[in-house]
Amino acid sequence: MDTTIQKLHAREILDSRGNPTVEVECTLACGTFARAGVPSGASTGIHEAVELRDGDKKRFGGKGVLNAVANVNDKIADKVIGMDARNQVLIDEAMIALDGTPNKGNLGANAILGVSLAVSRAMATATGIPLYRYLGGPTVHRLPVPMMNIMNGGVHAHWQGADFQEYMIAPYGASTFRQALEWGAEVYHALQSVINKKGMSVGVGDEGGFAPHVSSNHEPLELIVEGINAAGLTPGKDVGVAMDPASSGFFEDGKYLLRTENRKLSSAEMVDYYEKLVKDFPVVLLEDGMAEDDWDGWKLLNQRLGGIIELVGDDLFVTNVERIERGIRENAANATLIKLNQIGTLTETVAATRLAQFHGWGAFVSHRSGETVDSFIADFTVGLDTGHLKTGAPARGERVAKYNQLMRIEEELGSAATYAGKDAFIRPVRF
What we know:
The chain has about 425 residues and is of the alpha/beta class. It folds into two domains: about 5-130, Enolase-like, N-terminal domain (Enolase-like, domain 1, 2-Layer Sandwich), CATH 3.30.390.10; about 140-425, Enolase-like C-terminal domain (TIM Barrel). The protein has helices spanning about 65-80, 90-100, 110-125, 130-135, 175-195, 220-230, 265-280, 295-305, 320-330, 340-345, 345-360, 375-385, 395-415; strands at about 5-15, 20-30, 35, 140-145, 145, 150, 165-170, 240-245, 250, 255-260, 265, 285, 310-315, 335-340, 360-365, 390, 420. A nine-stranded mixed β-sheet has the order 5-16-15-14-13-12-8-7-6, with helices on one face. Helix 1 packs across helix 3, helix 7 (about 265-280) runs parallel beside helix 8 and helix 9 runs parallel beside helix 11 (about 345-360). It starts with a strand and ends in a 12-residue tail after the last strand.
């Protein structure tokens, strides 16, 4: 079987927010064809790889990606066509070298990632191996806890709700992934009823979570706990909660500005704030509790809460091996978020994941707010055995596509399938 890359073709498509993004198709000499769509973030860290946008205000308000598309169809194609798709590392390294910048600012991480993912999917298809097995080997069998973002705030709700960007549920008490998904959907609908009865809006944010006007950042947690109970489940036993404040978005002049509560907090005071939330609610995971360059704040947070819950760095680490290594050296967290488009190649994403796992850290795979129906991260999560995945509420097609793919994988694994449950987290569930 000839797995030489014969053709690459990119195009501009729309993501779930109605903004342009890159889609890449890869054809091998044996005739195998595969496609990959590239996600896009709204809450992006300053240390992320560059998402190349055209800047032409006459098209999509400057958000077009025709230059990134052209980079695939011309520059990258010239370099990669003729290479063997079996050599994923060499292909990714060739594109990184061709770009020649530390942040992929020349070709664009969106162009490079589209090729990287399309090549890997084409190779898996050519060999007849499911993508999750191609990525992880013959022994992969564990399904992740779906961390469902069911209440939105911050930039995902256009600053109309809570300051914190995401409030998630973690149905870790289920016995299978399918049951976890069922519980998550039931809590989601129960929460909708709870919010409705209080006369609040049930409009949703970018990731499908509800975004009502609230008076504090703990009120969403109160509503979610009420929703869990209303669904006939037990908070802390069946379903836990998690938060992604995305605190870089409300960090100004060295203070954390909580607009909903009209408060300005120092790093130490912000840690106190989180400590009370963890005490009052069944919180198992806190992502981006401190701002992306508040290293001292992160270290204090880890000292106080790192032995109790999973503390995930997103903007802090941006799926970058060098930044994760610093976090490990300085004991700044105990887990990293994993986003393919933050770094721009499959090879680098796997390296970041394996680094975290080697050091006993959690690796928490994530979608972006601007998604496509591409379900690559579902297979990636199983293949790399990360144990937990966030890809939005159990609503909106681009979110549900990932959950549905995980149900297919669980069905395919049959009796070999296991569910991560409470073991998904780097710190034991306390309840």
